[in-house]
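Reviewers of the previous submission asked for a worked example of the structure-prediction workflow described in the proposal, so we include one complete record here. The input consisted solely of the amino acid sequence. No template or homolog information was supplied to the procedure at any stage.
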Amino acid sequence: MVAVFNKELLSWYLITLKLKETLDATGPSRSTHPPTQDTQTEILKEEEEGPTSPESDSWIITVREKLELARKDDVAGTWGKLCIYRVPQYLRDDGENKAYIPNIVSLGPYHHGKKRLRSMDRHKWRAFHQILKRGDQDAKLYLDTIKELEERVRDCYEGQITISSNEFVEMMVLDACFVLELFRGAVEGFEKLDYSRSDPVFAMRGSMHSIQRDMIMLENQIPLFVLDRLLGLQFSQPEQKGLVAKLALQFFDPLMPTDEPLTKSDRNRMKSSSLGPFDPLSDHSSYLHCLHVFRQSLLRRGPQMEPRKWMKRWSHNSRVADKRRTQLIHCVTELKEAGIKFKKRKTDRFWDIKFKNGVLKIPRLLIHDGTKSLFLNLIAFEQSHLDCGNEITSYVIFMDNLINSQEDVGYLHYCGIFEHWLGSDAEVADLFNRLCQEVVFDINNSYLSELSEKVNRFYNHRWNSWRASLMHNYFSNPWAVISFIAAVILLILTGAQTFYGVYGYYKPS
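From that input alone, the workflow returned the following structure tokens.
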């Protein structure tokens, strides 16, 4: 009993001593009231666990903050609002990083403030000034409008945007006004918008092509609803939608990978088809940004996916990025040897490939110095956005399968299928062979999978190969045809002579 009493007395003595040291360390500002039961419990707990360092406390606070941020992300469901993405790292690792990084102008937060892109900021302010001057408006109207949309705009971008609220709003207003001035100037004429003919930016000069290429990049996008709202403010119609999409298509028209001239009958036939012409105003509510609008215009409501029953037997092992499973079709040289012919198909839908009776009809494709960046960013968008198909990726992989060498490119150019402004056919072959090196692709989801199966079935038929060999060896030119016919006639006459000689020997007249 005495031992227990002495133990409790010793505990109280240690608690008092600990409190005295704490008060001496914190100074006279701390309370001098006697310790409560809770305080005694905390002190005993500290004595059992040992002292904690300030570094440990700050680390725990940081972990808790990150967990709280993760909780807010899950609760708010921000993942479903994403539409403007960082290009996946596995696509950057193939050495094509320049295709995703703007060279002249930055739009949005991803490349905002980079030193080499700051020279365009003064022209963004000029665009904003011209808009306010033409409409006799105040800057506060535009800033307040974007301020109301700030949270919604931030949710469109992948990752945490660390830019302050005021800087973010200012950036979005300047970038959006700059884009709108370019769109309107390209359609209405920059001189009508009070810009000089010699303006370094707002004129149809040589730099415009580089600006267009920067503005179509995935990481350089502005949400379409922001552009719609600010353009509506200029026309005193804040709720208008669809006009920006129409302007964007006209602005980005030089980047189109096809310019196939169509006759009046061709256009009428396309209008009466099941796909119909593309109307940017028909479904404006579903468009995310200018890259999305441009992609939809290329697809013209998209290729109609056909049943892919032939691929079911491989469905268990083709769901990963396996280069062996992305081989849809043989190259041009091999298909030619099997008797398959190539013809240009008259349509401005470059993806609309047909195969019938041994003839592969491919629409004309125009290849220029911006084609590579355009296809890479379209593929990156299809790889990132969940509600996006893989039509462009399917087409590029199909063409990559067709092209193995410069000879393949040369033959497609001879057929009128390719028209390129690059240095050589070898550069075109290298372009297609590098576009989808690291792409995750499932051939079950390719709209060209059934067509590829038909081509492969024709290729594997031996009679087609023999017939192609006969045509190549004996009917490749008129003289070969004449020689073949002469040889056949000679063979027939020789056979007839032999027959009559033998017949006359056994049955003389």
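Residues 478-506 form the longest helix (29 residues). We consider this example representative of the routine output the project will generate in years two and three.
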